[in-house]
Design a protein that fits this description.
The protein is of the alpha+beta class. The protein is 28% helix and 18% strand. It contains nine helices and twelve strands. The protein has helices at residues 6-13, 61-64, 71-82, 100-106, 131-136, 179-189, 215-228, 244-250, 276-293; strands spanning 22-25, 37-39, 41-42, 44-53, 59-60, 140-148, 157-158, 161-170, 196-199, 208-209, 233-235, 254-257. Helix 7 (215-228) crosses helix 9. The longest helix has 18 residues, at 276-293.
Length: 307
């Protein structure tokens, strides 16, 4: 929902009540059900509405077909120029840098949603990237809904307008203030001046990412490996969105998230669930981490590296 008020609350109390070095939190899924995972930030989420509004009402497709521009066709072609046929982003400003530290952290990481998760489409998205890099190190553009005419009861008429609700999931290195202007320029270059571009009303999150080579990351990873017997996957950020930028940017904290769910959990659905083995292991891993925080050999608290 955007965590209304959280940023203001943190700004008000950052120098006293909320002053700290590190945030340890839990949300989201593991990279695979049987592999402990750390993630260090979140992709941003930016809602985008595209609208083609040509005229009042619909008009008979026999009498007016071939004479009136169809907003659904115009919008479909506009959407088709934002990515190619495999979903590779074509807007230059939406193609972020991929730091070497991020690539090293994601080397060998395999995304596994468990038995309930969908099969990954390996020929979808940026061809030069691995599946892990596509979701944890790159941007993705999605069409969430597309309407024109009356889908529930089609009639023989050319609709007057069309609308698509879209979203850009983006990583650090993308200029959030230029997301909408960049798309406007891109559509204009392709001749789609009649397509209106608006920022959606809900679900705006900013991207954040702690450097995977920060000493606190190594500390947490070693602790979890000692407790579970397995080295955790380290994700520079996870694919979804959280208000993590508030903790990282406003409070100035290093942020380490330790998920205890899995990708096939039916998130946000009526049957969302938690696997008992992950819950048990998660309790042990967190107890071990908080125990280790009480030991004297904590990492230095030098400023985190920028990515």
């Amino acid at each position: 929902m955007g965590s209304a008020g959280l940023r203001e609350l943190c700004a008000k109390h950052k120098d006293k009540l909320l002053q700290a070095d590190l945030l340890i939190a839990s949300d989201g899924p593991r990279i695979a059900p049987d592999r402990p995972t750390l993630f260090l930030g979140a992709r941003g989420g930016h809602p985008i509405d595209l609208v083609v509004d040509l005229r009042e009402g619909a008009h008979h497709s026999g009498n007016w077909g071939g004479l009136l521009a169809n907003p659904g066709i115009i919008l479909a072609h506009a959407l088709a120029c934002i990515t190619d046929a495999r979903g590779t982003i074509q807007v230059p400003e939406w193609r972020p840098p991929l730091p070497a530290s991020v690539r090293r952290a994601l080397a060998g990481v395999e995304v596994d949603g468990g038995g309930n998760g969908p099969t990954i489409d390996r020929d979808w998205g940026e061809a030069e990237l691995t599946p892990a890099e596509r979701v944890f190190g790159w941007n993705s553009f999605e069409v969430l809904a597309f309407t024109t005419g009356t889908p529930e009861r089609p009639v023989n008429a050319i609709p007057g307008h069309a609308r698509a609700h879209c979203q850009l999931r983006y990583v650090v290195g993308t200029d959030v203030d230029d997301i909408i202007p960049a798309l406007r320029r891109h559509l204009d270059r392709h001749g789609f001046v009649q397509v209106e571009v608006h920022r959606g009303e809900r679900g705006v999150f900013r991207a954040s990412r702690l450097d995977p080579e920060d000493p606190w990351v190594g500390f947490a990873a070693r602790s979890i490996e000692r407790t579970t017997g397995r080295a955790p996957a380290i994700l520079p950020n996870f694919g979804g969105s959280l208000p993590n930028d508030t903790f990282a940017d406003v409070l100035g904290l290093r942020t380490i998230w330790i998920p205890h769910s899995y990708a096939g959990c039916s998130q946000h659905a009526p049957d969302e669930h938690l696997l008992a083995p992950i819950a048990r292991e998660g309790l042990g891993a967190m107890a071990g981490l908080f125990w280790d925080l009480g030991e004297p050999d904590l990492p230095p608290t030098a400023p985190a590296k920028e990515t």
